Each structure stands twice: as structure tokens, then as C-alpha cells.
């Protein structure tokens, strides 16, 4: 017959086995939740690296500081999405949540994140869709993201899925971004209030020969650097826009016989003489024949003064 001591030992062992079994089941459940991305973990931001393709351009420091202050006061409300780093053990890579990670890193806090095993395609699709659902990227950021993905040899089907666009819109995004010099788009920044139409207008203006060289000095000027990103776009567009020269009101030249033969108009550096051939037929040809003689007389007059 078992003694009281032996029964107690058996009971304790049984409870230990049950506890081990429960812990094992809990560990399995946690592993399954982690694999499915169901669990939110707290991860040291120093173990987190950026995405393979950045989706944001540098915006205003004021905007980021306000975002960081919100996290300081209210905490991180929305988890980031990470994947185990494909090249470095015990490190992670961001799918989305770059600003959250940056803010928390500067605050010295861990990031709350869901961790999932993601392929490169899965990562960029998740990254693009999260930004799309929040309508958080500006037009030029979307165009830049599409172009960077193409430059990294992602298939267009993947890029379309990431940005939720069709082939036509994707081609438009990429063509517009490639038409603007990178140094210029980087200097302008995300310009969240500037849509496709105005970026297309800038592309057209940049293609005009008369706009060449008009940006020299602007991008490094203090007013440009100090301006908001939307204002920087406006400054660039204004600099490359060729404005039509306002012409003076045309005056009519009347001959001694009272015939109104010519109209004279000045527009910038142009002097325009229009002859009415209905009033004075062949007079235009006569003036044209006399131009060499008139010009020589003009030069002699100028040299003599």
C-alpha cells in the first residue's frame, strides 16, 4: 500500500508532467501564431533593418517630429510588419512601418510588430497595399516606388499588385518618374498636395529648351531649402515655365496720302512690322529689296554717332 509520502511524490510528478505538457502546447501554439503572423511581439529596433525597397521620400522634419511626439504621448497604436532577415540571423527586415520604427528607435522604445515569413514579392505587395489602404504615399512617391521595384527586376504583375494599379497607370507612373532628374525629384521631396497633372506639366516644361539652366542655383538657395516640399515644387515649376511676352498695343502707320499701310508692334526683343498688301500691293517686296540698303544706312548712322 503506497504511503502518504509516495502518493505526494507521484502527484507532484504528475502535476509537473501536466505543466510541461501545457507549456509545450503553448509553445507550439505560439509558434503557429508567429508563423501565421497572428502574434504581436516587442522587438528591439536595433535589430530591425529597412525594407529592400524604400517607399518614402524624405519629407519635412516638422511632420516627422509631430508623428514621433504622438507616439511618445499615445504609444504605438498600429503594429509594424517585419520578416526574419533573409541574410542575417536574429535580425528583421521591415515590410511596412518605417516611420514607426524610426520614431521608436529615437525614443529608445521597442517596436510592436507582427513577424511573418515573406518572400520578396510578398514583402513589396504588403508594403504597397498598406500604404495604399492608408492613402499615405504622394503621387511622386508612388511613381518612385514603382520605378525602384522595376529597377530591382520585380515583375510588372507584382508591381501592379503592390500599387493596386493597371498596366496603363503603372506605365504612366514609371515614365513620369524617369522623365524628372532624380536630383530634382529628391530635392523637391514628396509634395503630397501635388498630383499627376502638375507633375506631367513639370515634365513638359523640363522638355522645353528655354527652361534649360533655369534651375542652376535654385536648388541650393536658402529660400528653396527652407520651403515646404509643396512650395519647393511650385518654385521649380515657376522657374522652368516660359511665360509669353506681353506685346504692346499695335500702332498703325498712315502714309501721307492717308492710306493705313502698316502696323507696328513691339513684343520683348522683337519689332514686328506688318504691311497690308490689300492697301499697298507689292510694297512688302519693295521694302524687302531695300532692306540691305536700309541696314547699311542704319549702320553708318550708328557708327557716325
From TrEMBL:
<comment type="similarity">
    <text>Belongs to the ParB family.</text>
</comment>
<protein>
    <recommendedName>
        <fullName>ParB-like N-terminal domain-containing protein</fullName>
    </recommendedName>
</protein>
<dbReference type="InterPro" id="IPR050336">
    <property type="entry name" value="Chromosome_partition/occlusion"/>
</dbReference>
<dbReference type="InterPro" id="IPR004437">
    <property type="entry name" value="ParB/RepB/Spo0J"/>
</dbReference>
<dbReference type="InterPro" id="IPR036086">
    <property type="entry name" value="ParB/Sulfiredoxin_sf"/>
</dbReference>
<dbReference type="InterPro" id="IPR017819">
    <property type="entry name" value="Plasmid_partition_RepB"/>
</dbReference>
<dbReference type="GO" id="GO:0005694">
    <property type="term" value="C:chromosome"/>
</dbReference>
<feature type="domain" description="ParB-like N-terminal">
    <location>
        <begin position="41"/>
        <end position="132"/>
    </location>
</feature>
<dbReference type="Pfam" id="PF02195">
    <property type="entry name" value="ParB_N"/>
</dbReference>
<dbReference type="InterPro" id="IPR011111">
    <property type="entry name" value="Plasmid_RepB"/>
</dbReference>
<dbReference type="GO" id="GO:0007059">
    <property type="term" value="P:chromosome segregation"/>
</dbReference>
<dbReference type="Pfam" id="PF07506">
    <property type="entry name" value="RepB"/>
</dbReference>
<dbReference type="InterPro" id="IPR003115">
    <property type="entry name" value="ParB_N"/>
</dbReference>
<dbReference type="InterPro" id="IPR037972">
    <property type="entry name" value="RepB_N"/>
</dbReference>
<dbReference type="GO" id="GO:0003677">
    <property type="term" value="F:DNA binding"/>
</dbReference>
